[in-house]
Design brief:
about 550 residues, alpha/beta, Protein-Tyrosine Phosphatase, Chain A, eleven-stranded mixed beta sheet, seven-stranded mixed beta sheet, 22 strands, Mur_ligase_C_dom_sf, ligase activity
Length: about 550
């Protein structure tokens, strides 16, 4: 058994450092269970003179282990020829595993050092600890240096967007506003790489490679990067800095993966994006999300907050500190600056993405996008025009709150991949439902979510809909079976008394069945993740039309009558 569980090279800014780093996941069972005398000898060898390691496998021993491993890394580095080295150590949910990170300048040498540190831990129970440390230092000293990091320093303005929900819509809006101003915009996201509105590469490019591929195009004048949790954790951010950062929100999603088990830890991951924003740039933060607003304490950039509440304490505090805010006053999207009257940009009813002001999430996305565009230097008039012309359809914002009509039935298609996303989808469905009409929901879940989150989706969907169906995502089972996901969602539905739930193998099959049951005025909603193109084809083949902003406004008015 080896102590090295994983060695990961992070190419750029990451959870641990604002530059390229090595992340080691180590099994410290040998150190935790070693005899106290052996551990004390080990401590002396690496320069810890006041060690109190505690008994084997005790809480004291676990805490000593994190301190000792950090000192071990520094000792091996120093004796191997690196005089000073920053080291970060974090516990995990497993008391016998820790994460150790340190910056690197030369890849091959850094990898050798990671393996050498693990070799020392492997040797603890059976070998001479003094010799093991010396041998590790010699391996590092003799290692071939290798290549340097590939982190890119951008030569054009960069807007980096992160968050749990809304980052794709917000980044699309920023890119559209930039193009409205006549700029050539490069944009990377979970769908691919886009240059001046044209997709040049398909695939998930929300990691570090996306930013690099965007900036590889010489004609790009403004880069907009969607930055996901996975990319930050697994590879680091591909750029040394950004000019404007946006954090939309943080909520429970992807927990239990890559050592991130709580929403607070997830917020820490997301904070990497504003932490690398230039000092003279702007960090655009959601003032209504306490975890996001708290990020202002770790950023060097100027704060620009957005909130639907102009009297929010966070707005007042930011303005008092010399920052800016974007909010809603009398139905107008406004920019606030300390000592000045509000600057009204556009009425929300004239921003199609807000769905006539119905979608609170998209109101926030519009506030965030306007803030980011203004912060990166897009003129006020272009921001207004961009907000006015960006539409919630399959052309401008595919897969996000796309509203269609099939006769007198409304269909809403949205990614809605977590609790917050499902609640936002249901908000729109309710907002366009005629009095007395029904909600029919196609519910789905991705397999790598925690059990309780999948159960909660079943609860939310069953409580809010009149007809509930499970629509599976074969490509996103991620280690589970359809039966397992079925059982979890059904359990949630049963918690609120719903036991009649049909199940379909695909999103298209579920959509077809729900539309077949729908009556005039009913609203069908689909959590669409796996088969977006096929869903659009099915809708087109069955005479569906995308709702224009005017059509949607009429539906909202009818729902309120």
């Amino acid at each position: 058994m080896t102590s090295l569980v994983e060695l990961r090279i992070l190419e750029g800014p990451n959870l641990y450092f604002p530059r390229a780093a090595v992340k080691l996941t180590l099994d410290i069972t040998g150190l935790a269970e070693a005899p106290t005398a052996t551990v004390e000898r080990f401590a002396r060898r690496i320069g810890i003179s006041d060690a109190r390691p505690g008994e084997p496998d005790s809480g004291f021993r676990q805490r000593f282990a994190t301190r000792a491993v950090a000192r071990l890394v520094r000792t091996v580095a120093a004796e191997g020829g690196t005089a000073r080295l920053a080291v970060r150590v974090r516990p995990t949910s497993d008391p016998h595993r820790i994460v150790v990170a340190f910056p690197w300048r030369r890849r091959a040498r850094a990898q050798v050092m990671g393996h050498a540190v693990a070799d020392v831990l492997d040797a603890l129970p059976t070998d001479d600890v003094e010799t093991a440390v010396a041998r590790a230092a010699e391996q590092v000293r003799d290692a071939t240096p290798g290549e340097g990091p590939t982190t890119i320093t951008p030569s054009v303005p960069v807007v980096a967007v992160t968050g749990t929900n809304g980052k794709t819509t917000t980044s699309r809006m920023v890119a559209h506003i930039g193009r409205t101003d006549g700029r050539v915009v490069g944009w990377s996201n979970t769908d691919g790489i886009y240059i001046d509105g044209r997709q040049v590469e398909a695939g998930d490019y929300s990691g570090p490679s996306g930013a690099g591929r965007v900036l590889a195009h010489d004609e790009v004048e403004l880069a907009v990067t969607e930055t996901a949790r996975g990319g930050i954790l697994l590879k680091g951010i591909g750029l040394t800095r950004n000019d404007v950062s946006v954090v939309t929100n943080v909520s429970a999603d992807h927990l239990g993966l890559q050592g991130i088990d709580t929403v607070d830890q997830l917020a820490e991951v997301k904070s990497v994006v504003p932490r690398i924003t230039r000092k003279d740039g702007w960090a655009v933060l959601n003032a209504d999300d306490p975890r996001v607003y708290a990020m202002r304490s770790v950023v060097k950039a100027q704060p620009w907050v957005f909130s639907r509440d102009p009297d929010s304490p966070a707005v007042r505090e930011t303005l008092s500190a010399g920052g800016r805010a974007t909010t809603v006053i009398d139905g107008w999207l406004c920019v606030l600056t300390a000592g000045s009257d509000p600057d009204p940009l556009i009425e929300l009813v004239d921003v199609p993405m807000t769905l006539s002001g119905l979608s609170h999430f998209n109101v926030e996305n519009a506030l965030a996008a306007a803030s980011a565009a203004l912060a990166v230097g897009v003129p006020r008039g272009s921001v207004i025009e961009g907000l006015r012309t960006f539409k919630p359809d399959a052309e401008h914002n595919p897969g996000r709150m796309n509203v269609f009509s099939i006769g007198e039935v409304t269909v809403v298609v949205d990614l809605a991949h977590n609790e917050a996303g499902l609640e936002a989808l249901l908000e729109i469905m309710n907002g366009v439902r005629r009095p007395g009409a029904r909600l029919l929901l196609g519910l789905g879940a991705v397999g790598d979510r925690q059990d309780d989150l999948i159960v909660r989706l079943g609860e939310i969907g069953a409580m809010a809909s009149d007809v509930l169906a499970i629509c599976h995502k074969e490509k996103y089972l991620r280690g589970r079976t359809r039966d397992q996901l079925d059982a979890l969602m059904r359990r949630g539905a049963e918690h609120v008394g719903v036991t009649e739930v049909a199940s379909y193998e695909t999103e298209v099959a579920g959509l077809e069945a729900l539309v077949a049951q729908a009556l005039p005025g009913d609203v069908v909603g689909l959590m669409c993740h796996a088969e977006r193109a096929a869903v659009y084809r099915w809708l087109g083949d069955h005479g569906a039309t995308s709702d224009a902003p005017e059509t949607l406004a009429d539906k909202v008015r009818a729902a309120r009558d």
